[in-house]
């Protein structure tokens, strides 16, 4: 499923002051393109989720019958958050990569804004791990490799995501060989917009420099990849405390361990890879190129021993479904729509039935 920040409460901004411009009409600044009614192009169907100022629906293109996800934003409810949305749209229009969610087109009326996105039906990363019967370091390595390739592309464009976490890593389709896709660019920032100083993100995944009210850069994304890699190999985060202050102290000091027995059967190569990402100092932290060249990613050193039982047990303990902020399962919606279409003698085109796009 794709939920472009449909009112999630999982994002945190610390001492953040955002100066939002006075409401401008139209919101979409696209020369030569007139606002038109989305219903002339798409039929809006089942709701996937909703938030304080928007809802996400499955929609079907009236000509091609292809299914997409549409974020429907109520302008009046958005008041005061215009700058954030403008930034998100600007970033999404700039990026085109097979492992990053796509903004396909936009529509605008006097009262609503519609963002047409790729419909991702494969579910969240941790959710898929739980459903597997076999899961290995090699599986985790493949996921992280795709994430790193996407993040490298973002950094080459001067985009910092700032909110990488398992909940924002979705599978394109339910197929076993489905690719992973980075979503949710609500906190992303283009480096050309100026120095990054705002302390924002999701607490367990933020880098030390971000919490210390220092200027920071793209290195914060690599720290988050390190945290995600750690979780994928044991099922719990490297930094955790019920008290946020204590959690931040752990992160600032980069205090974590490879606890026994959970890490006893994990390769030294995997631990070395994580250690290079969870470096306290941004200058000594791996960049994307270095991480992609590490032997755990590209040198065949990721083990093929099944670690599913231990990892899935810890995921269930530490990542409750309520914490994942999961909305209605898009896979169920697609199956329901497909069945209805078949009953009516129609065809429904979904993303997994299309050839994979080449990386930009």
Automatic annotation (TrEMBL):
Residues 340-360 are annotated as: Disordered. One of its GO terms (molecular function) is ATP binding. InterPro entries: Kinase-like_dom_sf, Prot_kinase_dom, Protein_kinase_ATP_BS, Ser/Thr_kinase_AS. Pfam families: Pkinase. Residues 42-297 form the Protein kinase domain. Keywords: ATP-binding, Kinase, Nucleotide-binding, Serine/threonine-protein kinase, Transferase. The keyword Nucleotide-binding applies. ATP binds at residue 79. SUPFAM superfamilies: Protein kinase-like (PK-like). Gene3D superfamilies: Phosphorylase Kinase, domain 1 (3.30.200.20), Transferase(Phosphotransferase) domain 1 (1.10.510.10). Belongs to the protein kinase superfamily. This is Protein kinase domain-containing protein. It comes from Conger conger.
